[in-house]
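User: quick one, fold this
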Amino acid sequence: MLNFVRDGDTVIVHSMDRLARNLDDLRSIVRQLTAKGVRVQFVKEQLTFTGDDTAMATLLLSVMGAFAEFERALIRERQREGIDLAKKRGAYRGRKRSLSEAQVSQLVQRASSGAAKATLAREFGVSRETVYQYLRTAP
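Assistant:
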């Protein structure tokens, strides 16, 4: 998007935390966009930034961006806690393994005998990276 927008465009973003990972990124992206003559409008915060922003607008961007970063950190913390609780209950097991134990042993045996990893990946229906992961973790 940063490469595509042009002077006179308006970028509409639902919330500040959707545009950037943290406050520094948010400031940088808004500065980049407004330098190109692009308006940045945040729907949730009801703020609009243009190239001729006042000191008050800059302050609002910083304060609201800090709150958005804080809110996102709280959400991630709660998510981690929920996952930990689900793991303790046995409800969260992660993704199902792609290959069975028998397939893994066959994969390891063929790889050690010199079979190409790409060929093995095609035959077992997995990516090459998955083949390498199985080979790294195999006993």
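User: anything notable?
Assistant: The two ends are 46 Å apart (CA to CA).
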